[in-house]
Amino acid sequence: MAEVALGSVSLGGETTKIIIPVSDLEQVGQAVGAGGDIFEIRADLAGALTSQLASRLAPFGPLLLTLRSTAEGGACAEGEYAGRVRELLSLQPQAIDVEIARPEAAVLIEAAHRAGVVVFGSFHSFSATPPVDQVLARLIRASEAGADVCKIAVMPQHAQDVLTLLEALARARQQIDRPLIGIAMGKLGQISRLAGPQFGNCATFATAGPASAPGQMDAVLVRKVLGN
Predict the structure, then answer these.
(1) CA-based nearest residue to 207, from 194, 192, 222
(2) Minimal CA–CA distance to 208: which of 59, 48, 38?
(3) Where would a tag sit more exposed on the chain, N or C end, judged by fewer CB atoms within 10 A?
(4) Cα–Cα distances in Å, from 191 out to 70, 127, 163?
């Protein structure tokens, strides 16, 4: 699997990196103290605080800026998404999230690459887990769209759905030469957040304060379990 560098942090190697989401100023100290490898600023939740959060977190590690739309479980209005993603690029993060299902995804990915920013191409399904072939197809679509890191998060309804996600991730590892992230959300899917490089997962999201998605676990605990 090809590796992608975010500053001094490499994704796609032999260890699973820990990404800690942050959306308010009170979480900064917690996130830094928990020892995150990458800090995700949830711009749709942080709003006007996004720039200030970026300034405070930048000395401690690479930044991933994420603007999650209402269609994929976030707070950004659909009509504002593309314009706000472009605004985030002006903050010069190491990486930015782009929702691949959006019609403007390819244009946003191109704009990010022109700015020298790594792209996490993402899909989110908060209602169900698609079949293996559909999960795999979405990861392939992210790769073909030009995403540097291909991510999918699904909501399992039963244990088999978690196995579906992991099988798709393992198959994607054989077909996509890019770092991958596959997550089954909620308590039922927590084991997927601990599935490391053996399953193709280059990184996992963990908390240092309030969770930004269902099923996120404490970052310190996750690091102990992963043995990083």
Answers:
(1) 222
(2) 38
(3) C
(4) 26, 19, 10
Taking 50 as the pLDDT cut, the residues of the chain under it are none
Residues belonging to the active site = 124, 151
Q: At 20, which amino acid appears?
A: I
pLDDT tens for each residue of 109-144: 999 999 999 999 999 998 999 999 999 999 999 999
Q: Are 36 and 208 in contact (CB under 8 A)?
A: yes
The pLDDT tens digits for 16-27 are: 999 999 999 999
Q: Show the tokens assigned to 25.
A: 């100023």
Give buried/exposed letters for 122-138 (b at 16+ CB in 10 A, else e): bbbbeeebbebeebbeb
Q: How many CB atoms lie within 10 A of CB 220?
A: 15
CB atoms under 10 Å from CB of 184, counted, come to 27
